[in-house]
Q: What sequence folds into this?
């Protein structure tokens, strides 16, 4: 989030061409900084907020005198910001006998302001609710004492919500929740207040502006309608293809709790009318299984409007989801734990909102709460029917349109792979992958670290570990190959496994070229591979066929002479230790 | 911190906060000498200086600065 001085720098930018919205601010404290923050942040939201500010403490004069600048300005939105400090001041001045009626009387005044504004202007009203001040006159007993300031303040906040639920054009901006989030000592700086009559600290201004802009945006029709979910390590813990349905993390234990709570949140959004779609790199049947069978899943297939699970790139898949839903990219939110996927999507679809999910799933929800992504200005019953409608639509639409030219896309990634034999540094990671890889694993022979160490010194084996990095970052060690000398002419691929994260990047071609080059240099003429089927490795059933091997009995054979260099866009990275 | 060093750091804060590369302050500089330095940006300067040196000014101190020199003394009194 930009800080105040960064927002202020926006004020010097060119606002021409941006959509103009006239906003009036009526405050009982000094609001210049707030106005600057709003206009500055408006720029980042492609809005030219034309702001008119009343001198402070002029609320009533401006509202009840129709000849004032306010009515001349004809605002589309009026922001009314009556501060808790001034509220406390009023409370302090009245007779104690009146304290019990304080909130009710205030509410009447607010309702009057609202009615007068909306009866005489075609405007919506944003009212800032009250951040809490406990004057500590009664201590905890304030909660039992109707005449206490705290009691009246909370009552007023509650009554404001009741009022807003009845008044079509009254929207509350929840200042109180901002103070809850950042703490009062960050929200309010007494020395500044004493000197300037400003009740918002410099640091909290951007947050208040953001919360206000959230409202202005939805009043302007800019709202989120759809959330697209990744599955592995986003919707549940673990990798369904590798770990299996019994081992993914969801439910009430440990980190599973974080994913369960996340799913409850998504479910509530769905019930509210947000369309939920899935975009996952998985085999479709595998990805759907937890939705159908896992007892702890909160989300079920019924909740999902469009379910896309395959190994294509996610930007293309999201394009397809967008075609089915027929809504703008700017109304979609994409949630994925993997930075690579997030960047690919961001780069190809700049309009879509892609939150930078924290690394720890325990932090997902708090982070998502803080973004306030799903602001809305109205609710309809039709919203709730949406999921069904789209499910039908999804069956109808089968067009596969592509964003990306596959080759241009691969070239643009600037991929580099470091090829090394197993060594002290990479062996632990190879062992780990060997234990965990289930899907892209041709023979699923598991090796422990000590077994790998023996292979390293054996004369009968050659080992290869591959890393893959690209312009978005380093994926680390993602593939390992173990070659066994069968005789002086035949090399057997004892092990070939790879992380599914790097599918469809040409890594298979790159690895095969590496194996063939090695064979040629060492006078082997035949490369022999084998596929041993398991419950989880169906995706590599045709692996050797696709790479030009021929089937002989239970094995796959490649004559080195027949191999043509397989085109790919991965460069060889030099080891910096050389 | 020496007064010169302090003045250098303060000058950087002025440049960043007032968004003006050309601001040069010395001990006798007052708000009248710098175009962007008004009662509002004064508050921004106060908060920026507080953050930079991890100090807090009292409300009286904020009011008392007639020029940059007084501001410096005030910061130095806080052990910077």
A:
């Amino acid at each position: 989030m930009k800080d105040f001085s960064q927002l202020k720098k926006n004020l010097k930018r060119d606002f021409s061409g941006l959509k103009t919205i006239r906003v009036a601010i009526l405050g009982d404290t000094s609001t210049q900084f707030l106005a600057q923050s709003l206009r500055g942040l408006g720029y980042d939201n492609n809005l030219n907020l034309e702001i008119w500010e009343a001198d402070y403490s002029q609320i009533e004069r401006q509202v009840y005198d129709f000849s004032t600048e306010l009515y001349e300005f004809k605002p589309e939105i009026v922001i009314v910001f009556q501060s808790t400090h001034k509220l406390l001041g009023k409370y302090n001045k009245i007779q104690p006998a009146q304290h019990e009626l304080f909130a009710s009387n205030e509410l009447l005044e607010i309702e009057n302001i609202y009615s007068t504004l909306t009866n005489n202007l075609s405007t919506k009203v944003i009212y800032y609710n009250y951040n809490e001040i406990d004057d500590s006159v009664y201590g905890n007993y304030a909660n039992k004492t109707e005449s206490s300031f705290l009691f009246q303040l909370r009552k007023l906040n509650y009554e404001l919500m009741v009022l807003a639920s009845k008044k079509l054009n009254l929207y509350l901006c929840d200042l109180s929740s901002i103070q809850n989030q950042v703490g009062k000592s960050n929200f309010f700086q007494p020395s500044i207040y004493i000197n300037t009559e400003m009740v918002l600290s410099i640091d909290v201004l951007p947050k208040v502006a953001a919360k206000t802009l959230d409202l202005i945006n939805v009043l302007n029709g800019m709202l989120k309608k759809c959330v697209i979910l990744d599955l592995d390590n986003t919707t549940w813990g673990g990798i369904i293809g590798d770990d299996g349905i019994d081992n993914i993390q969801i439910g009430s234990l440990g980190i599973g709790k974080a994913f369960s709570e996340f799913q409850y949140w998504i479910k509530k959004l769905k019930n509210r009318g947000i369309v939920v779609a899935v975009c996952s790199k998985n085999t479709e049947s595998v990805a759907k299984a937890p939705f159908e069978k896992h007892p702890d899943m909160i989300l079920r297939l019924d909740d999902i409007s469009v379910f896309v699970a395959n190994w294509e790139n996610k930007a293309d898949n999201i394009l397809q989801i967008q075609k089915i839903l027929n809504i703008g990219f700017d109304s979609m939110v994409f949630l994925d734990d993997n930075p690579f996927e997030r960047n690919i999507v961001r780069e190809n679809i700049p309009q879509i909102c892609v939150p930078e999910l924290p690394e720890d799933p325990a932090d997902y929800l708090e982070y998502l709460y803080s973004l306030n992504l799903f602001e809305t200005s109205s609710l309809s019953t039709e919203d709730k029917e949406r999921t069904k409608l789209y499910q039908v639509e999804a069956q109808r639409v089968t067009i596969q349109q592509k964003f990306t030219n596959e080759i241009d896309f691969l070239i643009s990634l600037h991929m580099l792979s470091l090829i090394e034999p197993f060594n002290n540094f990479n062996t632990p990671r190879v062992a780990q992958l060997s234990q965990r890889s289930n899907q892209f694993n041709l023979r699923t022979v598991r090796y422990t670290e000590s077994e790998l160490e023996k292979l390293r010194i054996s004369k009968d084996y050659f080992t290869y570990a591959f890393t893959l990095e690209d312009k978005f970052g380093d994926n680390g060690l993602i593939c390992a190959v173990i070659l066994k000398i069968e005789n002086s002419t035949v090399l057997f691929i004892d092990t070939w496994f790879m992380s599914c994260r790097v599918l469809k990047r040409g890594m298979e071609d790159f690895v095969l070229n590496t194996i063939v080059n090695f064979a040629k240099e060492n006078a082997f003429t035949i490369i022999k591979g084998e596929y041993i089927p398991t419950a989880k490795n169906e995706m590599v059933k045709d692996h050797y066929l696709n790479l030009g091997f021929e089937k002989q009995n239970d094995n796959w054979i490649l004559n080195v002479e027949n191999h043509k260099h397989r085109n790919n866009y991965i460069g060889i990275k030099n080891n910096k230790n050389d | 911190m020496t007064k010169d060093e302090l003045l250098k750091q303060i000058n950087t804060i002025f440049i960043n906060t007032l968004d003006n590369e050309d601001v040069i302050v010395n001990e006798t500089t007052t708000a009248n000498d710098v175009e962007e330095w008004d009662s509002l940006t004064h508050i921004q300067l106060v908060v920026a200086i507080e953050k930079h040196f991890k100090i807090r000014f009292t409300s009286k101190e904020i009011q008392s600065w007639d020029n940059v020199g007084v501001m410096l003394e005030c910061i130095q009194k806080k052990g910077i």
In short: The longest helix of chain A spans residues 102-120. Chain A touches chain B at residues 4-5, 8-9, 12, 32-33, 189-192, 194-196, 198, 201-203 (CB under 8 Å).
